[in-house]
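Revision sheet: structure tokens.
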Amino acid sequence: MSTQSAVIVGVGPVSIEDVVAVARHGAPIELSAESRAEVARSRRIIEELANDPVPHYGISTGFGALATKHIPTDKRRRLQHGLVASHAAGSGDAVEREVVRALMLLRISTLATGRTGIRPETLDAYVAMLNAGITPCVREYGSLGCSGDLAPLAHCALALMGEGEVYDGDGAQVPAAQALAAAGITPVVLEEKEGLALINGTDGMLGMLCLAIHDLRMLLATADVTAAMSVDGLLGTDDVFAADLHRLRPHPGQATSAANLRKLLADSGIRESHRDPSACTRVQDAYSLRCSPQVHGAARDTLAHATAVAERELAAAIDNPVVTLDGRVESNGNFHGAPVAYVLDFLAIAIADVASISERRTDRFLDVARSNGLPPFLADDPGVDSGHMIAQYTAAGIVSELKRLAAPASVDSIPSSAMQEDHVSMGWAAGRKLRRAVDGLQRVLAIELLTAARGIRLRAPLQPSAPIASVLQSLDAGRPGPDRYLAPEIERAYDLITDGGVLAATGIPLD
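Predicted:
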């Protein structure tokens, strides 16, 4: 049972933080009284149209290229069931639980606006399924990111009907009917319009965007920490991070990164050891050190743009057709995922570049010609020992993959539904590769953290700043010495990054 406070759905849009709380930490959700009333009101509109002899799309017609076919009343339950069952056509590995929970929350959020015409009892069942920890088995492939994330959402709707496979609260894969019965939830029999209401949204790609934004806020601050450690360990200068220099180029993200680096390097004994220009022959540092705020800052500004897009999408009510505030039921194109797809791709580009500059800083520690007095590869006995030679290979391999993942999915389109849906966003694919990119960045930063820690320790008796010293103390890895099994040390550094331990260890606020 989650100890998280309940997220109230239906009073304004859910936030990125709400998505993370529900998707990743199991927070329950509750529907507001206002949303219940609006859902009931819009459902009455749908029921009136269902009895109209004039065909209405999604209510008394077929779908997509079959929208011109009128469906008689006695076949409409079959129509809705068949829509969901046929659209639950995903393939490949199961998608991560947190992505599916995010998708479910965001669909519920739209349903709760009253703009979809769903029945209150159907919405209540969906909420109960999410709160019970029942996670439908959604497959990797199936969404083109237009008409919504159809296949992923259809797999969730199928589970709501008591069909297909789900993971229960313990993570065991079981038939949906069994999981619903155990949770005391009656499978839903869909009525007019409900099939479309359950599957027509950008919820999958938006859920992945929200999770990525949350993770990247932490990772970009962590990148400032690893950069500061590299600057210190490589006997770089903090003069280039002065506030007045960055005011000359007023990008907000750059200013934030430079401020973080100043705080992290303040009162470093290593820095003071070579501050005298008569004793330091280097005129300026390499770009990977000197330009860290410019690269990290540009990524921050990209993240700010992506956040603005995500917040606008979180405030949206996406369905087709949609019930307007004045009671009309209108077809529209708001399900097209282009706005979300673009920023998913944009973030993958920024990630690739932040990882690239991190790997270059790592590499400088290992090259005796560029490390300013450190042993080759930080090895204990160079030649006998290889030190961090192959850790850099790992980082380089990941960076190379991140560059491939930065190739945008959203520039592609492939027609579907007999050319009725002739331009699609590929936003789901953009979200899937972004998740892999976020993980890759965490691993590249972990290798820089590990390498910089070893380099700084080799500068003893010189000591780094207090924040960096605290990070070293929290990192049970990256110590000098003879060669040893390195993979577990990389994983420990990775874990310290992903759980926020690096930022917490600095003991200072970083933006």
